[in-house]
Task: structure prediction
Amino acid sequence: MVSWVRASAPAGGRRSPGGGRRVGDALVAAAFAVLLVLPPVSGVFVIPLAVVAATCGWSSRGAWSGGLALLAAAVVGAMAPVVSAVSLQGVLVVAALDVCFGVLPWLVAVAWRARRASTEAAAAAAEQRERVRRHEAEAALARERMLLAEELHDDLGHALSLVALNLGRLELEPRIEEPSRDAIAASRRQVAEAVARLGASVEVLRSGEQAALVSRHRQVDLDGLVADARAAGALIEVVGRPSADRVAEFGAATVFRVVQEGVTNAVKHAPGQPVTLRFDDAGNRLRITVTNDVPAGRGSDRSGGGGGYGLVALGERVRLAGGTVETSDGDGFTLSVVLPREGTVTADRPVSVGQAPNEVVRARRRSTALIWAAALVPVVAVGCIAVAVQLLTLQRAREAELEPEVFAQIAPGDARAGVEPLLPGGQLDIDDDPPAGGDCSYYAVTSNPLDDASGDYYRICFDGDVVASADLISAGHR
Result:
């Protein structure tokens, strides 16, 4: 006991956070042991026993603390008939009550706590495996995208570099007029910037430094993007343009990508048609709407040409940011994107028991079977105790069985010394109302439980050295 106290004492003399809980669990276990040992004084006694037993089983150390309490009660119960006048049959009766109202609630509480723990552990393990699976899938996808990006950089970068070189040579051609020279120079700069961005994007994919790509897009001015599109001949009207700081709150890189994709789609599929770029700031949400008319004789299908992969990639990016993408065809084409303010989107919730995979369901089934087993064990124990009590009753009845012929020879006034040799060696443990001042002994009429006289007994009382009374008591008239 001293070693246990030393081991549980926190280092440095400071109480650990779980010290109070351990003390409480120990007190509950001690109360459980005491209530198991105490004989029931009334029917209400079983209520605190059941409450304390369930509390002990539900505690963090309920399995072993309750087991120690049961062991202590079993030791005391086994010693009671030896050191006191308590009969073994009485001990078994108390044990049956303890099993029904003590062991049963304790076992069910322990099993229920184990059920919850196993279900949570299975859910956590399943969630961990799912995270690992997703990580491996994302890693494989990232490797494939990296290879594709590198091939795209090598092929497209080379082609764009040649285009920039040719544009640079044209820019130096003396026969080209000044307005055309300026357009060629602007085109050369745009191609050079595209090559630089392509290389930077591949480098970001290779190094995994996503922040570098985001910061680079933050530096791009939306007004410059619109100005370049207007310089290329696009008719763009901007409504509700938020400030740069406000745009940064919704993810400048994503906002830039939405505007870029919307304007590129409009210029590509509806060249020469007016484009409306609208920003609607709703506090925690920013709606970006790009609308353009459709040229006469052409539909608004965006699946041609480039295959529509720009909108697909944009949708994936916006969904990762917690936003939504909608497109609609009417008199024109509309791209509507809603972005949440950064920090207002909650992370993915862990797997709940309601969404539990097969292993969680199996864990719940196993733990449910454990609860049923916990409830079945006391039933079996009570049945065994009942059988033991019945066997003890039969054995005691055999030892205390008095033949009717012998009882017929005993009459009040007979000498005690002459009657006692006729009596059996054993007696029944019966509590009735004997005559006042009588020294009474009780004997069985029959030891056969199927006999009609089973339960009847003889009561022979002595007054000093003589027989005071000899009565046959029927079980139905007690």
Q: What stands out?
A: Residues 1-17, 211-219, 303-307, 346-356 have pLDDT under 50 and may be disordered. The CA atoms of residues 158 and 287 lie 38 Å apart. The first helix runs from residue 2 to 8. The first strand starts at residue 235 and ends at 239.
